[in-house]
Design goal:
With 93 residues, the protein is α/β, with parallel strands linked by helices. It contains three helices and four strands, in the order βαβαβαβ. It has helices at 11-22, 34-45, 61-71; strands spanning 2-6, 26-31, 51-55, 78-80. It is globular, with a radius of gyration of 13 Å. The N and C termini lie far apart (39 Å).
Length: 93
């Protein structure tokens, strides 16, 4: 099974990817920073998990298209949409 995790190179996204790998999923992790993605891929694949990466800015149409190309025709069993940056404003605002 394939799990796609956006924002998968660090923080909550990386932890989601670790848990999905533990449950036996192949992974496609996406984030903007290729260096962070490479490090995350090394960490996640250390136990034999198949990990692909997509370096893309998902706030831009071409980034979303790049992610779609990375997925290709593979069925996605789990999608964790975790990419984004908080604004640091009060929640209710």
């Amino acid at each position: 099974p394939l799990a796609v995790v956006t924002g998968g190179s660090g923080g909550i996204g990386l932890e989601l990817a670790r848990e999905l790998a533990r449950l036996g999923h192949d992974l496609l992790i996406a984030a903007e920073d290729a260096d962070h993605l490479d490090q995350a891929k090394r960490d996640l694949s250390a136990d034999g998990t198949k990990v692909d990466t997509c370096a893309a800015d998902l706030s831009r149409e071409e980034g979303v298209e790049a992610l779609g190309r990375s997925i290709g025709e593979r069925p996605v069993d789990i999608l964790c949409v975790n990419a984004g940056v908080g604004l640091g404003e009060p929640f209710l605002k």
